[in-house]
Design a protein that fits this description.
The chain is α/β, with parallel strands linked by helices and 270 residues long. It folds into two domains: 129 residues, 3-Layer(aba) Sandwich (Rossmann fold); 122 residues, Rossmann fold. Helix content is 43%, strand content 16%. Strands 2-1-3-4 form a four-stranded parallel sheet, sandwiched between helices. Helix 6 links the parallel strand 5 and strand 6. Helix 5 packs across helix 6. The longest helix has 17 residues. It is elongated, with a radius of gyration of 20 Å.
Length: 270
């Protein structure tokens, strides 16, 4: 009987994002890609977007991007043996855990990958939360006055991991009691933050996204003029607002945290 020879080791990186069509966000993704390629020049890299709507729109524009499942299926068909999946999630919420479950299923397919490793999200450890807090403080505009609050808006999740935003605010407020972190889909929300601002008699604030890139959540839900945007709600409560449209992926120190998680995954290949 012929002896079966092990298939050759072929590593690959899959970067996963919700997806975007905005030039500023695409430029931020390119920054991440360039940073990853500089650290791992010999490992091929590809992207997957989780948003079906964005994938459909990009495909119509002649810029197709795979879903996670399609990207992994293509890799498997190409004979990739080891995959490091790094999602640009901020917390390990429902979407992160759904992605992890799908990655586990691909790793168990007979005759497929030898290993599928998934990196931690941005706020994956206590050390990450401390480092992100320091990075966010460095991103606060230098012309901020002492009486100005700073509010960071995250997406949030009904998942218990939403508590990571509260932990982040705790670390931020150790340096500055006028910094707040809230979420669109969790607690604390913008109404809770307005109550805190009134309690501290604050009437002006900078508003920044705690989101990977500047997309619709930033331009509409945070900084938009429509009723219900954070900017509009703050102004309704008598708080003047200065939105800053800069995503987390535009901050080098924060990109480095995602890259470190990716480095950990690749280091665990066997």
């Amino acid at each position: 009987m012929a002896t079966a020879h092990p298939s050759p080791v072929r590593k690959s990186i899959l970067l996963v994002a919700f997806g975007t069509r905005t030039p500023q966000a695409l430029a931020a993704y390119q920054l991440i890609e360039s940073t990853v390629q500089a650290v791992f020049p010999d490992i091929p890299l590809r992207w997957a977007f989780t948003s079906a709507v964005i994938r459909k729109n990009l495909s119509s524009a002649g810029q197709p991007v795979d879903s996670v499942e399609m990207a992994l299926a293509r890799m498997m068909g190409e004979g990739v043996s080891h995959v490091a999946v790094q999602a640009l999630h901020v917390i390990a919420g429902k979407e992160y855990h759904d992605l992890a479950a799908n990655c586990r299923l691909f790793s168990r397919m007979h005759g497929g990958f030898r290993q599928v490793m998934m990196g931690l999200p941005l706020l994956g450890t206590d050390e990450d939360i401390e480092n992100v807090a320091a990075a966010l403080i460095s991103a606060i505009p230098s012309d901020r006055k002492p009486e100005d609050a700073v509010i960071f808006m995250g997406h949030g999740s009904p998942h218990p991991a939403n508590a990571c935003y509260t932990a982040l605010m705790y670390h931020l407020r150790q340096s500055d009691a006028s910094i707040f972190v809230g979420t669109i889909s969790g607690k604390p929300g913008i109404v809770d933050i307005c109550a805190g601002l009134r309690k501290q008699k604050i009437t002006s604030a900078y508003l920044l996204p705690c989101l990977a890139v500047v997309g619709n959540h930033t331009t509409e839900d945070m900084a938009g003029n429509k009723e219900g945007s954070w900017k509009s709600i703050l102004e309704t409560h008598g708080i003047s607002c200065k939105p800053i449209l800069k995503g987390l992926a535009e901050i080098d120190i924060i990109v480095d945290i995602w890259v470190e998680h990716l480095k950990t995954s690749i280091g665990e290949f066997s």
